[in-house]
Design a protein that fits this description.
The chain is built from 3 helices and no strands. It has a domain at about 15-65. The chain is about 65% helix and about 0% strand. It is rod-shaped, with a radius of gyration of 18 Å. Helix 1 packs antiparallel against helix 3. The chain is mainly alpha-helical and about 80 residues long.
Length: about 80
């Protein structure tokens, strides 16, 4: 059986969730301005927000799975079993 590495001090779920929410908020704010953005050559801002939101969801999914794996293994955030 392989040794389980010590978990980080913080699991990072909260910051990733907040930042992912910020990307979603930015997307929702810019969506009604789509035609103006495209007219000014900044339509890529929408795609950047969408990519940030999508990658944030992926990162959050990964972090939650990692946190649960540490919990199942009986390792606390302080690194003690």
């Amino acid at each position: 059986m392989r040794e389980i590495p010590e978990p980080p001090q913080a699991d990072g779920v909260l910051p990733v969730t907040v930042i992912t929410g910020a990307w979603l908020l930015a997307l929702l704010v810019l969506l009604p301005l789509r035609s103006r953005l495209e007219a000014h050559g900044t339509g890529w801002w929408l795609w950047t927000c969408l990519a940030g939101f999508g990658l944030g969801l992926l990162g959050r999914w990964f972090l939650v799975r990692r946190r649960e794996a540490y919990r199942r293994a009986g390792v606390s955030a302080s690194g003690q079993a």
